[in-house]
Amino acid sequence: MNLGYIDYLNCYPFYYHMFEIEPLPGVRVIPGYPSELNRMMEKGELDMSPISAATYADLEEEIVLLPDFCLSSVGYVHSVILSSNIPIEELHGKKVGLSSASQTSVVLLKMILRKYYGIEPLYVSTPPNPSLKGQGIDAALIIGNEAMMQELSSYTYDLGDLWLRKTGYPVVFAVFAIRESLAGTYFSMIKSVIDSYRKSLACLDLGGETLIRKARERYPSVRYNIDAYYRVLKYSFNPGLRGAFTFYLQSAGEMGLLKKVGAENFLDKFWTANGTCKPARNDAVRKHGYTEGKDIRGAADQP
Length: 303
Description:
By secondary structure, this protein is of the alpha/beta class. The chain folds into 2 domains: 2-73 and 171-297, Periplasmic binding protein-like II (D-Maltodextrin-Binding Protein, domain 2); 80-167, Periplasmic binding protein-like II (D-Maltodextrin-Binding Protein, domain 2, 3-Layer(aba) Sandwich), CATH 3.40.190.10. It is 39% helix and 21% strand. Helix 1 (12-21) crosses helix 7 and helix 4 (104-117) crosses helix 6 (159-167).
């Protein structure tokens, strides 16, 4: 089975156990940028993978989602930023670079600028690690490790923070998908991957010193405090984050930035419908979630 891996610091806690402790027989891990994994899922070159949340709109009829896992943040995420030479309010008609590494953040930025700032820049595609110097662009979207390797520009905006302030919702940046046609065929391997993910998150819960050290060794160019970064991220796809995911998809669909989608398809429902037992959830997953409440939703009213 071909399993995708977002080759970023944020995804490493899911893969630590299979990388460093117990490799999974029959599972071939294929690393890449989110955009590369998205394309491989679309072409059928991957059987299971984290994908950009926005890509779900394109693959809705072909995939089912793992019900327990996601990559998300509530407010500041530190690894999805708009780096700009001028204030965000002055970007109308200016050239804004869009990272080729992902889709979720590209759509997120377009929604924020259009709906909440009334801005329509001239968008141009850029490599994952663009420079604002001598490139003919006024601002650039930078994500992942590259965002945490950058010298901050005059104006830097965290998209997780902007989205929370404007909407009251967290951002679900990535979800975990399986090709529906293979969800039954690869039952045992899918279960082994799910179990491995849970063991990895449990390692992070139990102090995480070794996991963080291995992450630092794997991504030495990241300048940000890795321990602090992992405490910001949310990995459990609980009802609050599912609601945030739905809001994002609906908002993008209404603005014509993504295809409109129906109800999300989850693996547990697929297995139940097909008479297959589903793995039980555990506390290691629940600890890394977000509970919707007044303290978060009220953030939409903040300046």
